[in-house]
Amino acid sequence: MDMMWISILLAFAMLALLSLGVWVSFTLIAIGGLGLILSENYQVDLLFATSSWGASTAWSLTALPLFIWMGEVLFRTRLSEDLFKGLSPWLGGVPGKLLHVNILSCGIFAAVSGSSAATAATIGRMTLPELRKQGYSDRMAIGTLAGSGTLGLLIPPSIILIVYGVAAEVSIARLFIAGALPGLLLVSLFMGFTMIWGYLHKDELPKTTGHETSWSARVKGLRKLLPVVGLIGFVLGSIYGGITTPTEAAAIGVTGALVLAACTGSLSRHSFMDSLLGAVKSSCMIGFILVGAHFLTLAMGFLGIPKALALWISGMSLSPMELILYLTVLFVILGCFLDGISVVVLTVAVILPMVQAANIDLLWFGIFIVLVVEMSQITPPVGFNLFVIQALTGKNILYVAKAALPFFLLIGVAILLISIFPEIVTYLPTTMSQN
Q1: How far apart are alpha carbons 383 and 374 in whole angstroms?
Q2: pLDDT band for position 435 (cuts 50, 70, 90)
Q3: Residue 12 is assigned to a structural domain of this protein
């Protein structure tokens, strides 16, 4: 059968299985097996066994469950609540007032969670009832939370950056550091937009914040912020300084999170077991997807699809910026139907030859992918953050999507900025120490 028709058949088979609700990992394995049979290679069981072993035994993957567990510990203890109480006194006088708590809380929590959904759910539970009680605009409160929740994918340590690093064979430590400045850029864009909105819509903001904003209150707030911020700084600083590997830093992060939770009195046997089971479930889910993606990549290699696609793209004589534009559209469309990790593992093997042929830095490309996947997290019909916030608020999914639209566009601005000024991504990795 002609390769083009095989590719079309496999694509339709994959869409059919996903639309029927088949798990992403099982879909990838089934399509990989079908691809091998169509390539007249019938040793499917042997190839699946060897590819599964290769996909699941990479040492760099050991950081994944540890970072997930660190986020679960903070998610299920009082430390996340302390973020809101610690930030509130500092933001009462800023245009937009406590709406900024959503943005900064998500930014800080993202640096210890690594998960977009966990960030949106944790911060939303704390802030949305308080903002609603004080009379803030529902749409803006939801919008800031939806947009800022996506920071869990970018600000290190990021689960999706670990997945990309393993798939593309790029240093995870360098990816983590590369995500820091783009993460701060997004926080700045979100806060700048919120300030402008707050200045133009003063009538939609309460006259007071409901929280004391004196210097004594701010100092008390710092006492609540410093433990979590200190943990983040130590984990990322140890990676940046070349003192630890990402896996060692993740182990330190888990230990630090457990110690902090115990010191605040919010670590119980119940919360410990819940955090452990939550980390196991998330890690197993991601592990199954990686196994399926690795098997599908192997099948596509036998079929010659990645090489053919790369030759086709290179024959179109696209400039690097044109290729990035096309890939942005592709990733946003895929993100409307798949979660971010699935988008990465499904596409990296096929797209990397094209990216390398266009002389695009794989480190920069990893951050680009994460930013585009962030956009897809707040894009209907399957924007995961939209579902999380809909569950928290009970609002219609289209209402939540409309509230998130300005932040979707701001992420697009960030993608444009890192495309024009790639140094935003590449500068810090060039300065870090080598292990």
Answers
A1: 9
A2: very low
A3: no
